[in-house]
Fold this sequence. Notes:
Elements: H1 4-14, E1 18-22, E2 25-28, H2 31-39, E3 43-44, H3 61-72, H4 78-95, E4 103-106, H5 107-124, H6 131-142, H7 148-174, H8 180-185, H9 191-204, H10 207-222, H11 224-236, H12 245-257, E5 264-268, E6 280-283, H13 285-289, H14 330-347, E7 348-352, E8 357-360, E9 364-367, E10 370-375
Parallel strand pairs: 2-6
Antiparallel strand pairs: 1-2, 3-5, 4-10, 5-6, 7-10, 8-9
Organism: Saccharothrix yanglingensis
Amino acid sequence: MTDPLDALASAARSGDGVTRLGRGAWLVTDPAETERLLASRDAVTGRTDRPTAPTSWGPDGPATWMAVRRAMRPLFTTARITASLPVVAEQAGGIVPGWPSPGVVDVGDETVRVVSAVNTRHLLGGPSRVLPPLLERELLLAGPRPTPFRRHRLRRAQRATYDAVRDAVRDDVRGPRAGLPAVLLGQGFDEHAVTLALRAMLLSGHHVPATALAWALHELSTHPDVQRDARAEATAHPDPTADLPLCRAVIREALRLHPPVWRLRRRLAAPARGLPAGADLLFSPYLNHRDPGTWSEPAEFRPRRWSADFRPAPGSYLPFALGPRTCPASHPALAQLTVVLATVLRTHHLVPHGSPTPTFDVLHAPRRLRLRLLPV
Ligand code: HEM
C-alpha cells in the first residue's frame, strides 16, 4: 500500500504548487496559494465528512460554532494565558517529576497524561479525574477507520463524554465560574451548546498537543547540545511566566518538522483562484514546512532559526492551519507546551531509546517512542 505521505509528495512533485488530483480535488502546496486559499472565507470545512472526527461535534451548525469561537476569545488573551501559566506549571509539576528516572518511559502515554491534565484544568478552571480517560477512550475508538462494531462502542463512548462534559458545565455554574463554561454561559449560550463546544475543545486539545510535545522531546533527545542549552534556560528561569525563547523555539521547530495535523481539507463554496466552486482542496503543513524553496536546511532540527525577528514566509508555516478555521487555541497551546517542556528539562535528561516510527494517519505521530530518562 502506498504511504499516504508518499502519495501526496509525489503528486506535489508532478505539479506546480496547485496540482489536480482528479475527481474535483486539488493539492495546494505553493505557500502563497496556500495562504490565499486557506484564509479565504470561501474555503469551508466539511465537518460532516467524517462523523466520528472529534471536531465534527462542535455546536449545531457552523454559524453557532463561529459565534462560540468569537465568544471564547476572552479566555485566550495574552494576559489571561500568562495568568494561567502558574497553574499549568503546578499541573505539570505534579506529574513530570514522578516519571521514572533513571528509567524508560513510553512518551506517547506520558505526554497525553500531562497535556490532558493541563488542558482539562485550563478549560474547566479546575482539575478533572473523570474526563481524561473518557476522552482517551473516545479518540481511540474514533481512530482512522472505525469498523461497524467499533462505531457502536464509539457512540456509547461519545455519549459518556457528552454526559461527563455536561456535568462539568453544571459544576461550573454551581462553582467558582472560572473556566470556558463560565465565559460561554455568560454570553448567553445554552447548556447544550456550551457542552458541545467544551467537548470539541477537550477532544481537540487531547492528542494533538501531546503529539507535538512527544516530537519535541524526541528531537531534544537526539540533539543533546540544544537540550543542554534549553535546560540551562529553563533552570535559570524557574518562574512559569518567564520568557523562555529557546524552549518556545524548540516547540515551534518541532511543530515545523513534525506538524501533528499534517494534512488539511477544505471545500470551495465559491470559485477562487481559478478553481471551481465545490473543489476539494488538500493542504499539507508537512510538505509546506519542508519546502526547500522557503526553508533553509528544511529537514534539519534548528530551533535557533526562530530568532525574535524571524517571520516565516506567508503560507510556509501552518501547524495550526490558517484562516477562519485556524486552531482557536494556538496561543495557549504554544505557551502551555513551553511551560511543560521546561518542567521536563529541569528534572530529566532525555536519551534516545530505540527509534520511533513516524506515522501519517489521522496525525503525524512518533509510534513507539520511548526515551531513557536520567536525573538532572
Ligand atoms: C500544538 C498544539 C495544537 C496544534 C498543532 C493544533 C492544530 C490544529 C489545526 C491544524 C487545526 C485545524 C484542523 C482542520 O481544520 O482540519 C485545529 C483546529 C482546532 N483546534 Fe487545535 N491544535 C493544537 C492545540 C489545541 C488545543 C490545546 C485545543 C483546545 C484547547 C485545540 C482546539 C481546536 C479546535 C476546537 C479546533 C477546531 C476549530 C474549528 O474547526 O473551527 N487545539 N488545531
